[in-house]
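call fold(seq) -> tokens
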Amino acid sequence: MKKSILICVILVLGVSGYAECPPGDLTGDCFIDLADLAVMAGDWLTGTRVPQDMVLVPAGWFAYEDADPENYVFLADFAMDKYEVTAAAYCEFLNSADPDGNHWDSWQEIDRTGDPGNYSYEVQVGRENYPVYYVSFYDAQIYAAWKSAMTGQNYRLPTEQEWEKAAGWDPVLNKLWTYGFQRDSIDSTWCNYDYYYGGSRPVGSFNGAGGTNDARSFYGCYDMSGNLWEWTSSIFSGESRVLRGGYWGGDASFCRVVSLTSGVPSGRYYYFGFRLLLEL
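ret:
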């Protein structure tokens, strides 16, 4: 019954191009498309609206590391951050939960004032919408725990399998794309890589504005190739963790959705960032 209702709603809302955003636009882009379908499906599957800054990745099988069908991996449904965590969002966490400065680094482009136990933080002007970097695996974990406590929902770092599905899987074509924007070729209009932009770019830079392409994954995530390597919860070896996605100074091979690197959990570098998963 719910499936029939959902299909009817989709048929009714299946238009775009309004002068003003139509009522069926649930993502704020003034179009009714797959991203809006994902939000409606999220309501249907979980009874909970997927947060506006996240996208739904429905349950199902996918070709992890481009495997043959007999080696597909099944994942439960989850929501993933549309963009990498920004300096502004991380600064909010620092002001709320880090008076001692344990999860702050002077290279994060977030200024710290005050005394130990009573620090306050402010993002440097113009850097608010840039992805935060110089964050360790431990920093990202604590940020996820803080956000979970603030919202009453279960946020965490994705596994590398969850990250890869959100980045590259296309359930319509039954295909794992080479790059995280539904393409098997790459250039600087699709993502930030190979030193082309000289550093990280603000989140949303590759959403189709300013001469770039709308470089979203099938499910609606951006910057899954390039910009910053992103922490996952998966173990590489020993205590080191897997990072995915490549970064602004890496070549095209690093930007493939199956590529990875590793880092020690305490490591902070100018090319390490993260995004969160929400369990549904």
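Residues 1-19 have pLDDT under 50 and may be disordered.
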